[in-house]
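re: that chain from earlier
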Amino acid sequence: MGRKIKIAIVGIGNCASSLIQGIHYYRGKAEKEAIGLMHWEIGGYRPSDIEVVAAFDIDKRKVGKGIHEAIFARPNCTTVFFKDIPPSHVRVTMGKVLDGVSEHMSEYDPEDSFIVSDEAEIEKQEAINILRTSEAEILMNYLPVGSERATEFYAECALEAGLGLVNCIPVFIASNPAWSERFRAKNLPIIGDDIKAQFGATLTHRLLVDAFRKRGVKMERTYQLNTGGNTDFLNMLNQKRLRSKKISKTEAVQSVAAERLDQKDIHIGPSDYVPWQKDNKLCFLRMEGKLFGDVPMNLEVRLSVEDSPNSAGVAVDAIRCMKLALDRGEGGILEGPSAYFSKHPPRQYTDDEAWQMTEQFIAGEVKVPDAPALT
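^ sequence. v structure.
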């Protein structure tokens, strides 16, 4: 024990806050006290073995601050479940803006939106140098939805600096053959795209759709409506930034259905921004179908979760699987972990199959699924 997993984070928002709180929350706990983890240890690594060694953001309330302060700065609004974060020497570096901030954000109260720092934006070589000097091994991408150019900028930096990438947002890097091949060619692992919550709307929807398929219920139409009050939902009021998000969430559900629904019969995606909800996410899910004898049925579910801790519960496992790959000298797409931890992996599998593949990967076994990938 005593080995560290050194990570760099792009975007010190609510998800980063929950992840960093969790790293310290689980430090010193015994396994039987470790509630809320899918795995206590992965390859001998515990959550507390994760160490943040570099951080990038563009908000003036975070840039220049130690990460122990920045994770609690506005507009972050997630649940504080561990506030006694020890002082950190790691300061948040001014990042590259590009398309990382939607134009409409300036129309909202700065307390709930971004205030872009007036410091000079980082250049590519400077970012690469910081990643190398920090000895980071893994880059976590927590940029806002729709940040395509910004994500590609940091993916380039990861490649040049020799870091693996966990792509937590729905910009297609792992599931883009050109990008995934570049990581494979450099023998750098990648997990993505678009992190799947520990127990969120997408997982719930997939489990129910899979149950319809296994129980012989014909699904005729479905919707998933989500509301929240964090900057993620505020950012997604810009419909132009939602194309990849809607593809990611819709495909995650379509892929486990017995028959793909016509686009007019399936609606999945963020629905509205409700400021007072803060980091709480409400999902309203409806499914309509036919049972034995063509008898109709319908199902409605309301799910309420704290959005960012839900993400962090998966991120701690994704990071440790990445470290295993680095220790083993494995590069390219980590297929099992990508399918289990992400909404839009290169190839979709059922959650049972993806779980089995991930367990096989952790154990160092050959990752051969019992069934072909879903199309």
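The mean pLDDT is 95.
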